């Protein structure tokens, strides 16, 4: 009997083995795509926004959407402050339900006083879960822009902002305030 030189008959793969390997590769590829998709979804929805909680002065809220396929929504909260305004907010968003922990509160606070009222002092303060995160006192300009970026130890349950001034009379009836895109997000440490 002729020999193939290998000391025995060669093994042949059954036709089903190739199909099994193809299925296994497809399942593994699908798993990788799902994990990558979840990572992208977590990155895209990593911000938590502030929602008025029905406590204090009610801000006027508006949203602006910019961009095309990967649009970005920026939220704006505005007040017309006669003497004092205080508003409380809940921290909400899809990432909150998935165990997201934010480490920064971000936003931009813009304040402006009427002409002839630059000598009036504006005071503002942001509180996170009842503790003061930051604040300040402003005077001698018509318009101010303040970064409200504060480090957090964890995602807060509540955020509040208080604004007041020395006006509220006939000469200086009110000042305007706008908090642009206040949100909690997770930033890299360092």
List low-pLDDT spans.
39-45
In helices, the fraction of residues equals 10-25%
Count of beta strands: 11
Instruction: Return the string of H and E elements.
Output: HEEEEHEEEEEEE
CATH-derived architecture of the largest domain: Sandwich
For the largest beta-sheet, the strand count, sense and barrel status come to: 11 strands, antiparallel
Shape: elongated
- CATH class of the largest domain equals Mainly Beta
* Average pLDDT score: 84
Strand content range: 35-45%
CATH fold-level label of the largest domain: Jelly Rolls
Class computed from helices, strands and strand pairing: alpha+beta
End-to-end separation in angstroms reads 75 Å
The DSSP helix count reads 2
Number of separate domains: 2
- Spatial extent as radius of gyration: 29 Å
What does this structure look like?
The termini are far apart. This protein is an alpha+beta fold and 190 residues long. Mean pLDDT is 84; it is low at 39-45. The protein has two helices and eleven strands. Strands 1, 2, 3, 4, 5, 6, 7, 8, 9, 10 and 11 form an eleven-stranded antiparallel β-sheet that branches.
């Amino acid at each position: 009997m002729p020999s193939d030189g290998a000391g025995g008959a060669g093994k042949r793969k059954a036709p089903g083995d190739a199909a099994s390997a193809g299925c296994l590769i497809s399942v593994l590829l699908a798993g990788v795509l799902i994990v990558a998709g979840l990572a992208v979804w977590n990155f895209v929805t990593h911000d938590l926004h502030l929602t008025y909680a029905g406590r204090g002065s009610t801000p006027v809220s508006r949203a602006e959407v910019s961009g095309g396929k990967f649009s970005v929504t920026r939220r704006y909260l505005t007040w017309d402050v006669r003497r004092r305004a205080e508003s409380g907010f809940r921290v909400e968003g899809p990432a909150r339900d998935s165990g997201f922990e934010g480490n920064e509160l971000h936003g931009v606070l813009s304040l402006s006083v009427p002409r002839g009222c630059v000598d009036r002092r504006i005071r503002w303060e942001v509180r996170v879960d009842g503790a003061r995160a930051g604040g300040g006192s402003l005077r001698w300009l018509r318009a101010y822009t303040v970064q409200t970026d504060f480090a957090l130890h964890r995602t807060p349950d509540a955020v509040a902002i208080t604004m007041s001034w020395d006006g509220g009379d006939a000469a200086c009836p009110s000042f305007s305030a706008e908090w642009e895109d206040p949100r909690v997000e997770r930033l890299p440490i360092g």
